[in-house]
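User: Before I run my own analysis I want an independent prediction to cross-check against. Here's the chain; please return only the structure tokens and, at the end, one sentence I can use as a sanity check.
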Amino acid sequence: MTTFFNYDEMTWDAVAELPRDTPLVLPLGPGYTPSTSLRTSFDLLADQLGHPPRIGLLPAFPFGWRGSGLEIPEPVFFPYISNLLDSLRDDGFSRVYCLAPAGIDPQSFFMRQLAPVCLRLPQRQSSPAIQIPPDSERGKVTLIPIGHTEQHGYHLPLSVDTLIIEAIAKGTAAKVPTRSYALPVMPYGVSTHRSAFAATMNAGGRAFEDFWLAAIDTLVQRGFDRFYFMSGHGGNTSFLVNVVKYAGERHRRIFCATAWLHTSGRIGAEALSKYRTSPIGGMGHACELETSYLLHLRPDLCQMGRVVDETDFITTPDYYMDWIEGGALVANPPWDDDTKTGAYGAGSHGTAEKGRLWLAAAIEEKSDHVQQIHEQHERREQRRNEGYGLWGKS
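Assistant: Structure tokens:
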């Protein structure tokens, strides 16, 4: 009998030990998490794959295809998915698949490109088409949380970045519900260090930028004009800066913003300083901060008996590692120069209580950013409408 497991709940070293003929499946859309109620669907999936001992399910890709609620042009959508599947192949997995919704057009560009590795299941119970976000949410800041699926040392799962930024985005939308709306979290970002440790995915920088710029194009066409990219993964940041710049140039009457990670602005930095117990270098990756978040959000996924503190980052005055990175130098040396286990920092200092306090600070910080985005957009629109500068000549 085939058993199913969630890929993103594993640690990187556990993925490294999987037999390379283990089928791994990337679903488009939610609803494929292993459960008793979906037993029939999973039996059918096992049938298609020849009833192997185990099948791994990757995090669901939330939208992008026709009928998903937020459609991206197929030539832009395809490279994002293709790069993710290639990440698994690069790790040596020989049976890598995409699970497509039953309603997707089999003659579409996307399906024709992925035909050899695309699985289908019978149509699940149909539901009315829902746009993401609903048009009723116009005038709010659209929160776009983007995590990642990547290694986090020996003690944390691959889903760390996604779980944290999803909690922050949902918390922000709940704190300022009349001012913001959160999209479903994207569990895949960019890791330029992908080859250093097993299990880490990579959407590719150019595909990532093209996808998210296309998402802004689609939403602007639907009447949305305020956007906040919220990243839980440092590797996304430089690419999101480019998306924000391109979007602002292309759509001159929107306000599109991002920030360096989370818990790192003036509100977050104060909370970090107040509650941390590790010195500088103790917060980077699978560290005091991320471990604390996971101990608060998903303690069942933390293996604290396997924590290895690694703070031997090669530092110079203008280049060092901590959650709020410092110094004038920007670089990208191999990860395995500075860590043997995949961790940067002191995970042993993590506690659930710190995670609770830092999550509250992060939500407060992001809610404040939402208010600032509204103020920026409204004051700029007033100037434009009054004919300020070159606006008066258009």
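Sanity check: The first strand starts at residue 3 and ends at 6.
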